[in-house]
Amino acid sequence: MAMARGVVATAAVLSLAACGVGQGASASTAPDPSLVKDGSLVVCTSLPYQPFEFEKKGEVVGFDIDLVREVALKLKLELELINEDFEAIQSGQLLNDGTCDVAVAALTINGDRARVLDFSSPYFNAAQVMVVQKGSGISDLNDLVGGRVAVQEGTTGELYATDHAPASTQVVKFENVEDVDSALSGGAVDAGVYDNNIVGDAIRRHPSFELVAEFDTGEQYGMAVKKDGDVDLLRVINEVLADIHASGRYEEIYQTWFGKNNADE
């Protein structure tokens, strides 16, 4: 699963936290975010996307959830999580209409999204991979001439497959990653495209799956707030990301969800 990709260089996070959104605000001025709900940090996420955000024993948990909890703690706020459709998150709809304060959903920073959302410093690196059924004989997107590939709607996996698969390949969009699993395991599609950092969980769920190709897309995940919205909130998020890298807390959270001993219970 190339887990080493997940560690973002501390220096880069520190640099981004120190500039950009912080310009024009005094370093000594306490941030005063404008929140959707008094006393709470309302966060939109999209389940399931294990190990970033998913439900376990009735509780929403995951790598992203632990990170955004650090932001709530910094602000001395309750963390309130809302499970929403990923497309509505990445399009900017839910943040810009005031449904939530922050979005955290393994959200890749890209130009289209940056036009409708304001992103934090990057906190995670990712790539795309292709998964097939064992024994299929498929080893690359180019083998899908006239075939079908499953993707999660609105994701960078959808964009990559659309841009790079043969013209005769049908890109089949699904609402969540579990539906991608089901389509591939049931034979409705010939392959599925996943973020590399969740594919291990898909393969554990379906031992008949195998990873056959990885595509270095240079992706980085960021938290998001409404476009041209709360500069103070974005400032706090960046400060928290820098602080947890410096303190080692980021590595602790990373090891919890991606460490060698993090087997499904």
Task: Give a brief rundown of this model.
This protein is of the alpha/beta class and about 260 residues long. The protein is built from ten helices and twelve strands.
Description of the molecule:
Helices cover 33% and strands 24% of the residues. The chain is built from 10 helices and 12 strands. The protein has helices at 10-18, 63-75, 86-90, 93-96, 111-114, 156-164, 177-185, 199-205, 231-247, 249-258, and strands spanning 40-45, 54-56, 59-61, 78-83, 102-103, 117-119, 124-133, 148-152, 170-174, 191-195, 209-221, 224-226. The chain has 265 residues and is an alpha/beta fold. The strands form 4 sheets. It has a 5-stranded mixed β-sheet, with helices on both faces. Strands 4-1-5 form a 3-stranded parallel β-sheet.
List the keywords.
265 residues; alpha/beta; 5-stranded mixed beta sheet; disordered N terminus; disordered C terminus
